[in-house]
Amino acid sequence: MADLPSHAPLPPADLPRTLGELRAAGWRSTPVAEELRRNAAGRIAAGEPLVAGILGFEDTVLPQLENAILAGHDVILLGERGQAKTRLIRGLVPLLDEWLPAVAGSEINDDPFRPVSRFARFRVAEEGDDTPVDWVHRTDRYGEKLATPDTSIADLIGEVDPIKVAEGRYLSDELTLHYGLVPRVNRGIFAINELPDLSERIQVGLLNVLEERDVQIRGHRVRLPLDIVLVATANPEDYTNRGRIITPLKDRFGAQIRTHYPRDVVHEVEVMRAEAELPAEGPPVTVPAYLEEVVAEISQLARRSPHLNQRSGVSVRLTIANYETLVANARRRALRTGEPVVVPRVSDLAALVPSTQGKVEVEALEEGREEEVVAQLVSAAVLAVFRRRVVLEDSGAILREFESGQVVHAGDDLPAADYLAVLRELPALEPAARSLVGTDAGESPALLASAVEFLLEGLHLTKRLNKDASGARALYRSRR
Asked: Quick one: which of 73, 47, 69 has its CA closest to 58?
């Protein structure tokens, strides 16, 4: 799901503009949970996904979320960083009706038929059916707050506005209040990211608004029967150690749903392709499928590596960043050599160290060995994909050509034409290279160069060739 638009559109001109017109049009108030349930049921019946653009959750997370919405529950999503929790929550916004009527001038989206704020109650009482109505777009009915230890009741619920007091209103007057984030998304969805980081006393205040329907602000008791669906996220480590959710608030959530990283390379590649931002200008980019799998495999292996801190998680953002870096390094080579197409190679994987180190945490015993740990992950990923992808009918013929003293230089700065010369000198390597490239690619030198490097690296990792490496440069030779 894409991020929410920064600006809501203008409402259609034919919508009712007063309370009387709204009543005559037959509009009926609907609790927000019922609204979500109705629209979710329509999507499910039509065979449409509940949340668009979420990959890998179709058989795990989304069915649980569908149940929670149909049951009218508040939801907490529990999972490590980079598991699309926030994106999943924002994906619920399209389940709201596109337009919702509210008393004009209300700060908390008051229902024209059931106003709750003092301002809206007085306006409806005074103006009756002539009360003007504003139409609120669904994007304005979603509020989000990252929980931090310094978050206050004023941020979430509200505070006495000293300017309004200075204008002559009494402190006992509800109109002196400046409403916080929660009341301002009345009749909508409110999301709290990293809920355990919210201090316990603030959680209590939030519970009062959501359950008891009242709150005291500086001794001023305000009745706020808000209509809100609450959705929160939490990291399992924070959930049990760094912070905690108070029991009454935890009990408020009807569903606790566990998210996860992509379960296999296929889903990881799908997410990577969907989320990576590749340059729109310049030479066209073609990333061989086997290198896409290598990038995804690096993340899959990192999530099982004993050398990395698994409690902090290995985000899908690692996969996306590595993919973008791989293409960037290949693009840099194309700009220097003048090649008409950008095609990454195995030698470009050396550029992934900076994009990987910032997104993983090595165990204490491995400190100072970050680059070595990353290099081991890259080699293991190439080996795994090589074994899945390549079947050499006669590897002996290739090795015999190397035994005659043949050596091959490889590197991320060599032009593709150099690798065509390698195929002429090592004809036994050509069938496997062309098999990797595929018939649709024709005689693309850049694709053949990438295939040659992948095969050479695979032969090295399967201990059939020696490799002398220095950075992104390498020399492959016989083991004899």
From this structure: 47
